[in-house]
Design goal:
By secondary structure, the protein is of the alpha+beta class. Helix content is about 50%, strand content about 15%.
């Protein structure tokens, strides 16, 4: 409970001291007017109803300084941030947060400050980038609440962290084969793996000979490879624990991999499967360049990404009669059922479209 006591300064002026406890420590704030002291007490009691009271003196750290410490100490499921995730956060902080509200003290970041910031970032960087930046700011300020530097998280924009992704182009198996035949021969197996098995791009770049068991028609995903600024090629575990998985391979992929092993790939069990023109592990940038050339040669839709091949594989798998959400999650390496349910829903929608077509195509008896 906050209390107010009156005292006189050496000059005989009245002062009103508000005393309360925050973060396990005694806090005292002085006001010249009784009204201001009463308002502060009401604010403290209101904050007490929603959570622990934060010591205002501890919220004087700048957002920029706190964010830098947050990046270095942030743990996700007990592990430090993945290099590419950290790289993305650093970029968002520098582009959209530190240059705008980075100099604010934590305690001075109010809901109105967040709303103004969000509106400006939406205009200057776009809706999707604003959503990513908002989620990052929310996570940083949540930690500030946990550390009792601020009483509540000031981010309160409904739907502020939601991205509105563009509808991705739908492709069929015929186009996957056409893309595989259009790309450089040393990457043909990569396209088929992505299009029919559904590996992520980083997982494809990290594949080694020892990850393949073609005799038993299996592939094991244990690592992923990413390009990190200042570090070059970095090999880490998959995106999530569910990303480590063993999947069975269809015959068309096995045949492509057998030909690939006979002609390409680094030697030795630990040899990287997909290489660049000089024998080095292929980078994401070079793969993107090769992909764009293949996309144009195959007449594929503009904007089609390598990752869209993974969507095709997942949707194709979801069409298997009787497949469960758990089985689909295991196959595509998702820890959450959300994505698997999206693919299953897409398949159900397609089935309804097919049924509607058949209703029109089949003549009445």
């Amino acid at each position: 409970m906050a209390s107010i006591s009156k005292r006189l300064t050496a000059a005989g002026e009245a002062r009103y001291d508000v005393r309360y406890r925050a973060g396990g420590r005694a806090v005292e704030e002085a006001f010249k007017r009784r009204q201001d002291a009463d308002n502060r007490v009401r604010q403290i009691e209101a904050e007490r109803l929603t959570g622990p009271i934060a010591d205002p003196r501890r919220g004087r750290e700048r957002l920029t300084d706190f964010a830098d410490r947050w990046l270095e100490t942030r743990l996700v499921k007990g592990k430090p941030l993945a290099p590419t995730t950290k790289q993305g956060y650093v970029w968002l902080l520098g582009r959209n947060i530190e240059t705008t509200i980075g100099e604010y003290e934590l305690a001075r970041i109010t809901p109105s400050v967040v709303r103004d910031w969000y509106a400006k970032v939406t205009v200057t960087a776009g809706r999707d980038q604003a959503a990513k930046s908002y989620r990052l700011l929310r996570a940083i300020l949540n930690t500030a609440v946990d550390d009792e530097l601020i009483g509540r998280n000031p981010r309160r924009i409904r739907g502020g962290g939601s991205e509105r992704a563009d509808e991705r182009p739908m492709i069929d198996a015929a186009l996957v084969f056409k893309l595989a035949d259009s790309i450089n021969a040393r990457l043909r197996a990569l396209v088929l793996l992505a299009g029919f098995v559904g590996l992520r791009t980083g997982e494809l770049l990290g594949l080694r000979r020892c990850d393949l068991d073609l005799e038993n028609a299996r592939l094991t995903v244990l690592v992923q490879a990413q390009q990190v600024v200042g570090q070059g090629r970095v090999v880490t575990g998959p995106k999530s624990e569910a990303g480590q998985r063993t999947v069975s391979l269809p015959k068309v992929v096995i045949e492509a991999l057998e030909k690939h092993l006979a002609n390409y790939g680094q030697p030795g069990e630990a040899g990287v499967l997909f290489r660049g023109p000089r024998g080095e592990p292929i980078t994401r940038a070079l793969l993107s360049k090769e992909w764009q050339a293949a996309r144009m040669a195959a007449g594929a839709p503009e904007g089609l990404r390598i990752h869209d091949l993974r969507h095709h594989a997942a949707t194709l798998t979801a069409r298997m009669p009787g497949i469960t959400t758990k089985e689909l999650m295991a196959r595509i390496g998702h820890a959450s059922p959300r994505a698997a349910l999206i693919y299953q829903h897409a398949t159900e929608q397609r089935d309804r479209e097919i049924a509607a077509y058949l209703d029109e195509a089949i003549p009445e008896p």
